[in-house]
Amino acid sequence: MTVTTTGTHTGLRAKAQAHLGQHFTRRDVWQGEELPVFVRSEGCHLYDEQGRRFLDGLAGLFCVNMGHSRSDIVAAAAEQMETMAYSTNWGAAHPPSVEAASLIAELAPGDLDVTWFVNSGSEAVETAIKFARQYHRSQGQAGRTKIISRSMAYHGVTLGALSVTGLEKIREPFMPLLEGVRHVPNTLGVTGDQGPADALECVRAIERAIIEEGPETVAAVFAEPVQNGRGALVPPDGYWQELRRICDRHGVLLVADEVICSFGRLGHWFGSGAFGTVPDMITFAKGATSGYAPLGGMIAREPLVRALYDSPLGGTFTHGATWGGHPVSTAVAVANITAMRDEHVLDNVRTLGPELRAGLEEIKQRHRVVKDVRGMGFFYAIEFTADRDAGAELSEEQSARVLREVLPAAFRKTGVVLRPDDRGATMLMVSPPLVADREVLGELLAGIAVMVDDVAHSVHG
């Protein structure tokens, strides 16, 4: 592989381009002269190898909820390493995993009391798939193996999680995937009070799919409280209550994939709580440790766990991982969640989230290239179009230029890092650290205003 080595700060970049595989990254970006190399971080900002400061407007990847370089979280990791760097949760326990699981049980809705720790969001979803299948098998319903998920939803990259994912672009290279997964319409364009939720097509489609597949064959419905794929889709009023009703009616488990939506991103500990529903399982990762250590998990309702373990067809959940509930990662989770609680970070999101939304709406009103602003809390998507007033969409060429040239250049120009997104539309994802104050949000909005200006200039000249 040819390595580009121009300029005076190329050592790390050259090594990255030669040896470090990039996730979801085109080769021209990987090998480009503008590939960023960040060397330190503090608060809501990152610093590259040339010392330039960037606002981390995406909180890493929707995960650095408490901001960068927290000495208390770092100290918790160091202390745990010195005390006991590793011990397993296979037929044993250790204090940080017990404390983390107990803390999560206090915060999770309803009787979601038991957590299996893993290492990532994809593994958390994989765990939920396996639990759903084994639970039904333990109850004498081994035919319940199918999954209902939503179009454009992203649930992870392991083969099971990728099967549940509804994004054909990232599924296609790995076909065939897990059989028995059916995708139904998401909630795009349906939000707020749309009348009785049970009359909405996005709800009716879920029950119709269960009936058509045969309820006796369906294990679970997977959904995010606010769907990331297709751009921060907030559900209509009553949607989650209807999901709960439908699943209860047909004996199907309801799984809330909260890899992004948990630990404060929506202003609540869990997104399910924001919508007043107790699912059967919650998957989480990202914000549980604010990115300071890898950790994911699946939380299950205690009666389901008891039923699986008490059944002669069950007896144990046949699942595990060497690093699941790693002492250092769970110690970090305890320090992170405790700090989030003690510093009232969720109050910050609930107070400033509407102000962030208002700032984004103001930018939208100034530019007809903004088709929509969606989201809640500290989680938003800006969708672009050619002309909102005329109903004209971007051409394929315009979209590619915005995503691959205009926005990346605007990130460098403004010093604000966000995420261009092409999953079903041309979008910009916004997800600042939950500790961001009005000054930081002002910096964020100023950067976004410049980005949208540049998009408008690219489209209209």
UniProtKB/TrEMBL annotation:
<dbReference type="InterPro" id="IPR015422">
    <property type="entry name" value="PyrdxlP-dep_Trfase_small"/>
</dbReference>
<protein>
    <submittedName>
        <fullName>Aspartate aminotransferase family protein</fullName>
    </submittedName>
</protein>
<dbReference type="Pfam" id="PF00202">
    <property type="entry name" value="Aminotran_3"/>
</dbReference>
<keyword id="KW-0663">Pyridoxal phosphate</keyword>
<comment type="similarity">
    <text>Belongs to the class-III pyridoxal-phosphate-dependent aminotransferase family.</text>
</comment>
<keyword id="KW-0808">Transferase</keyword>
<keyword id="KW-0032">Aminotransferase</keyword>
<dbReference type="GO" id="GO:0008483">
    <property type="term" value="F:transaminase activity"/>
</dbReference>
<dbReference type="InterPro" id="IPR015424">
    <property type="entry name" value="PyrdxlP-dep_Trfase"/>
</dbReference>
<dbReference type="InterPro" id="IPR005814">
    <property type="entry name" value="Aminotrans_3"/>
</dbReference>
<dbReference type="InterPro" id="IPR015421">
    <property type="entry name" value="PyrdxlP-dep_Trfase_major"/>
</dbReference>
